[in-house]
Structures
1.
Amino acid sequence: MGNTATKRANKTDELTSFIVTVHDREAIASVALKLEALGVDVERVMKRTGVLSGRGPVRLLSKITALPGVKHAREEHGFQLPPLHGSIPQ
Amino acid sequence: MAVEETMASPLIMAPQPTGRRLVRFEKDGGAKEAFKLLNSMLDIPPFIAPEYGSLVDTMAAAAERDATVILPRFSVAAIGGGSAASVSIAQMLQVEGLVVDSRPEFWMFALGDPPWADDTERTWGLSATGADLSAFTGAGIRLAVLDTGIDLAHPDYVSRAITHASFVPGETVDDVQGHGTHCAGTAAAGPPQAINVPRYGVAPGAELFVAKVLNNRGAGRELDIIAGIEWALDNGCEIISMSLGRATGPQEAFDPLYEDIAAEALEAGCLIVAAAGNDSDRRYRYVAPVSSPANAPSIMAVAAIEADGSIAPYSNGGIGTGPIDVAAPGSGVFSSVPRPQLYRTLSGTSMACPHVAGIAALWAQSDPALRGQRLWDQLVAVAEPLAGQSAMDIGKGLVKAP
């Protein structure tokens, strides 16, 4: 039981990459500041697309989502192409 | 080790005989004599146009009975009764000295209809989309390909002005994996420098922007991809081609992140096209939903077709929350790959996607008003439905060049 609780706590402390979109692209810098105040290490601020990225503990996701000015927030995923081969659809 | 399909293997499109024999007779008197003789040799009397009713009815009635048709105006007969019998009759007429020439009658097809094939001048994708006959090249249009980069020293690109950037930490734009050079080539390669290589670039005059967002192993972070979109928008690109994605689950909603970005891009006059994904296996009637990010409503989802005009067996369909918007050539697509191989034939919706990007560039050049949503609307308005293919699989149909 204790181990499970510890594991759960560790899980929420794991660092992850977040992707955040904002309601107002003009106000993206202020959202970046709010993210940093939460403890997110902001990596990229992309004003044209209205997207911010940063790293921080998984547990911050719900707080990020609730921040004023934030439209969507989630963990980052990745993409992987299949091996380049004539018989494998690309 | 044998390397698969380093060059296109053009399909040989043999003429298809109808079974009748087409015979041309001497015009001066010879034809009348020949028709008389022909009449006496046939079990089924010939149909002489326009002896019975209209010409259309006569031809239809003759075809129904596999009967011989005589066209007196042109001194021509199509001799029915099967290929062996028609050859024998034609030879007998030839012996009589009445025949100018004789050959099998062949089925004729409307130009531009499937099946298509690579030939010495162009790939089948260019024929199918009409890019090879277009008056436009994409000149003045900025087209971005977000992928594994490009081999800048490839003979087909070494003298080309290509704006490029790498968003993959520690890697230059140079393409090691090969996927990016193939996709960029389909979208916008110029005339190939090697001899005996067909034209394979849809929009050879487009300004090519290449962002490396997938690393040398073909993997990529979403943020690098979004950064690539941002870069393309900053550079004023009118079209972004993304042959990448991830499989989605049944009824999985589209990702609002990509929808927001693509909607912004459309608003800014930039069309994003993406591969629909290759997770289907139609041999078992299994059709997978459109991948993400192609399933976002403001991203044009591209399905892949084969050279016979049918949906590719691997191509995802509009069965979930995201529809297929258009289709393009995806199977057996010949394009460039990094040195030393230079060229390779690959299949997938990744190959279909840059066809659409290239066609979009041709349309964008044809009319400066065709940008963003209007460019989207034009592509779907002129897309061609394909016989026997459903909208669920190919959307509005095969993209067509102006």
2.
Amino acid sequence: MSGAVIFFLVLAVGAVAAAVGMLFSRNAVYSAIFLVFNFTTVAVLYLTLGAPFIALAQITVYAGAIMVLFLFVIMLLGAEKLSAHEPLAWQRPLSIGLGVLLLGEVVYLVAIQSGMTAPLPMMQGQFGGPVEVGLALFDRYLLPFEITSILLLVALVGAVVLTKVERIRPPRKEARTEIGEPRTVMSASAEQREPVTEIGPTSGETDVEITPPK
Amino acid sequence: MVPLSYYLALSVILFTLGVIGVLVRRNAIVIFMSLELMFNAANLAFIAFALHYQTLSGQIFVFFVMTVAAAEVAVGLALIVAIFRTKGSIDVDQVSSLKG
């Protein structure tokens, strides 16, 4: 067994162990940290596969930006742990069993049956470097690259719209009865509650914030 | 050098672990992380094939997958925050108001 294979096996075991740890850790913060470790090991694998640009993009975008976003949301919501109550308890071992079955099938089909056991060619020259990737990106793939910017813009606007706190601007005179209805009420206890917003006659200019039910 | 099938096997294992995570976990954020794991596994296969066929297109596609994943995470986490405001929980078993 050559040194490259041993290096690959160490990284692969690390990546799989991190993924398993992410799956079965109770705390969502630990899951996020395990996922960062997984992304880092896979980035090192990208380096061995002759993709240094993608490897560093993986570290900055995935392990950096995206996981910071995850951790931010976990800590913002305070939702790192759920209650241990399991409504569909019998489905959990079934899903694990079916997942292992899927694993066996796909490993057999892709890795063994396809017969791609030839060693990978060595990377040569600047293959996968920033210069090569940049040239390909702005020459042959220019249109998809531009469409990506539109996609990111739409995602930005969508995220802002979705997380915007509902504010109701009180109307001038009529339609007073509709504004007291909280739009986001789902639970039964909150339905019997008094409307949250009480609009006085002089509060025509202020915004009224509706607090969602706990 | 390492054979291509090793990388494909690792990619398949990571993808299946992501599938199991989506099936097993109830925390919506952990389900999202499992989705990221599946993206990552697909990216690994793309990079391995890019080296195997000596073409950069696989790496460019991984670049686009990363941007789509970033957009998906932004919108998805915004959805999770909105669901948490409404329900007070991100347990996916409790998001069943549309159940018939």
